[in-house]
Amino acid sequence: MKSALLLSAALGALLFAAPVLAAENPAPEPAPDAAAEVEAVVVIGQGQSRQVQVLNEESIATQAAGTSPLKAIDKLPGVSFQSADPFGAYEWSTSLSIRGFNQNQLGFTRDGVPLGDMSYGNHNGLHISRAIASENIGKVELAQGAGSLGTASTSNLGGTLQFYSRDPSEVMGGQVNLTGGSQNMHRVFARFETGALEQLGGLRAFISVADQKTDKWKGGSEQKQRQYDAKAVLPLGEGSLTGFYTRSERREQDYQDMSFEMIKRLGRDWDNLIPNWNLAIAAARAYQTGTALPAPFATVDDAYYAGAGVRDDDLYGATLALPFGDRVDFKATAYQHKNKGQGLWYTPYLASPGFGTAGSDAAPLSIRTTEYDIDRGGLTASLSVDLGAHKLSGGFWTETNHFNQARRFYAETVSRPSRDPLDFQQNPFATQWQYRFKTETLTGYIEDSWAITDAFKVNFGFKAMKVENSVETVVGNPLAGTIKSEETFLPQVGAVYAFDSGLEVFGGYTENVAAYVSAATAGPFASQSQTVVDYVAKTLEPESSKTWEGGVRYRNGRFQGVAALYDVTFENRLLSASTASPILGLPAVLSNVGSVKTQGVELAGEFRLTDAWSVYGSYTYNNSEYEDDVMNGDGTIAARTAGKTVVNTPKNLFKGEVKFEQGGFFARLGVSYTGERYYTYENVGGEVDGYTVADLTFGYRFDGEGWSKGLEIQANVTNLTDEDYISTVGSGGFVNRDTAGTTMTLLPAPPRQGFVTIKKAF
Asked: For the whole prediction, is pTM greater than 0.85?
């Protein structure tokens, strides 16, 4: 009831504001049909043979400052996104699913540079919220299927997300944004534009800095990030040379993973203990000495003192785009990425050296880290030739990635904390394991786009890939050897037919394969067993997908819409099943769960009701089911998964949005419904209820001279109705069944929060 009243009030405010503003700012005379084209925030991929949408800069800008673009694309059909913070940027909690494929089965790029699979303990890339400040994103393109053949990814079994930065302005100027709001959140963003410098051949560039800090919405401590972006474009005749650099310094205090049982017993606002050091010491001492735990602990895993993610990234890229005449285009991008990261927990399972010794200040707990060092570089290149009816294109991507990963422990003192969890830890007292990985990637593709007639176009081609993952042991169980993922023919075929009325029909078929993961915490090497590595190398096939999709699009002066059907077969699916609480760090069990069948329908449309009002909506029905039971090596059934719904995959998704813009005033009300999900493979226990959540944006853009020129004020209210729901599912992994509701793998969503941003362009 409360939710319905608040939503009604928000919509009523928009309706009330409209006639008032219309009276103050009379509506312009009706424009001709040609000028009445939909000024779409979501561009539905006209002319594409596959399901594609593009989200523009405006849609990202209306989100609360610092919001991840992943949250912005949640409105698109087929997309399910969750996070335990209001910005969708807290990486441990971000969960993205598209057509039943989870985040590490998707592909991601920034200006053509691969971002890897964007998993939390990333081994081959970085999260988009670290790859570029949201204010510098120009557009986001989503392909719900596997994406184009030239996408630089070896994980895109499902969808592909390509992020593009905005170009530097031709005119000297800049932008300053100041944001404040709930939980002492503040963000400063500043960008300077050089404009086109004629003395330097028309070179134009920008440099920006973003600094954000916010308290957690529950528990102690904070989450903060500082980011620097730079981009330059040098015209070269009809071509260009573009370079960019991003530096990200992220420090995130974690929220405690919870279970249904914990939420019922302790409440949704329960969290890690920081800054209550004494209670953390008491719980750890009780565990170490075998005595009774202090209230309100039922198990030592109910809460830890703190957990955190610490990441530093440097990402460089340079793109040369050259046309040769009117028919040949060449493009090449070189890039380099270096990362240093630690993910840490204060663990009560291992005491600091000296604990229990008379006169020692050693704590009954220690800090456990997983440490990451990435050094990767690569090159993508493409060439297209226009032969009239045929447009031939081809290209390649090569990358060498050196990844060093370790598990270490650091001592603490019992009297008071001697370390800051938001700093890089130094001087460990133990290294449990350390491995060096090398991943060499080479992909190539050839494609022909054939315009049979002006209305009927066909594209067909194929991709080949070869990925070699090798491991070297520094500390721990000996591991050695190389695992290969290799395919020479992965076809993609599509067609689109455009009618004169604005209607078009499209369809396509794609095959793809995902390379194995090189990490000690995921994939075949996570077993830390040479036997398993040898078995995978000699016996198992990499994961693969076969996607059929087709549909219709329609566009006229005020409306655009799409309806699509899809059928996906996901084969050789490999899963690393959790065997205990994540803090124990036990090796994951790699299982082949056979095939998954996914079928669904996606609907989306945007309608401009008047020059001031527009509505957008999307609906997705997705049915993803395991086709096989999981079998043990002796032929017995390990998990009865056949016919069960895939974990973290809602069947029903609905997104709606109402927008108003006139006379400087703008407002947006977005509503999202996400259906039920499971975190159990057998769907026995572990069902998470569906939820409806709304976000509201409103503000005013001044259109004057002097101090008000370029001034804008924007307010955002997230979770407008203060909905109490579980957002992230699977933060601590997935399990076969959970009848007692004790699996710690849930993160409650943040309550209603508000933010105000003042923007000034100059």
From this structure: yes
